[in-house]
Design a protein that fits this description.
Elements (H helix, E strand, L loop, with lengths): L1 E4 L3 H9 L5 E4 L5 H13 L3 E5 L14 H12 L8 E7 L2 E8 L8 E3 L5 E7 L2 E4 L2 H12 L9 H13 L1 E3 H8 L3 H13 L3 E5 L4 E5 L4
Parallel strand pairs: 1-4, 2-3
Antiparallel strand pairs: 3-5, 4-5, 6-7, 7-8, 9-11, 10-11
Helix pairs in contact: 2-3, 4-7
């Protein structure tokens, strides 16, 4: 469903915000698989907007052809699993057309899109980047859906994690495995449990994942 608008103020206000977790600028749509990663990342996180026909510096270039609208549709229907819902508004700004693609937050938390090797992965939006969701985040989502009770025994390994975070502020997954001498499965279980009860929070970038003390720690 499309709505054609002529007032530029709304788009100018969005551009003034700059790119962030719920807003991304795209000069053009030239690859449906690539735009699918953006659709999935927004849907899996907090929702958001894509402005097509806007350069990274905020200048308005406009879309090059109507084909870009079809590529977005192809991305959502063919390269997002399951399909991502979205709406499009067209804005005419000084004779240039900007597409505002609005993606609501999904109820599924499991949309996937192909990476550069055509392997389907779950993407999330972190600040102004689309990154692959970690296995721990996916396990947190699953446990949230299952709604099972969480039992914390405050074992030696769990107390070690809390003490380390209190002293150092944050820890990587590899560091936690090293100091606790736990295998991957056991280390993930502790971190997932602590994230779910708010004692630990996760900080993600495209390069690294860190765990920090949560609000309840």
């Amino acid at each position: 469903m499309q709505k054609i608008e002529t007032v530029a103020g709304h788009i100018q206000k969005l551009i003034a915000e700059g790119e962030h977790q719920m807003l991304d600028f795209k000069f053009e749509v030239s690859d449906s698989k690539k735009i699918a990663r953006s659709l999935v990342a927004f849907a899996n996180t907090d929702g958001g907007r894509l402005l097509i026909g806007v350069k990274d510096n905020g200048s308005i270039s406009g879309i090059r052809s109507d084909e870009e609208k079809h590529m977005i549709q192809t991305a959502a229907q063919m390269y997002c699993r399951p399909e991502v819902e979205y709406t499009v508004k067209e804005w005419n700004i000084n004779g240039k057309t900007v597409l505002e693609v609005i993606i609501p937050k999904s109820r599924h938390h499991k949309h996937k899109a192909p990476d550069h090797n055509n392997i389907y992965k779950v993407y999330v939006r972190v600040k102004d980047e689309n990154i692959v969701a970690s296995s721990i985040l996916i396990k947190v989502w699953k446990r949230e859906r299952d709604k099972n009770n969480i039992w914390i025994s405050f074992s030696d390994e769990e107390m070690l994690l809390l003490r380390y975070l209190n002293e150092h502020g944050k820890i990587s997954f590899e560091e936690f495995m090293e100091i606790s001498h736990l295998n991957k499965k056991a280390a993930e279980r502790i971190l997932v449990d602590f994230i779910l009860i708010g004692m630990v929070k996760m900080e993600m970038t495209d390069k690294k994942i860190f765990f920090l003390s949560g609000d309840l720690a």
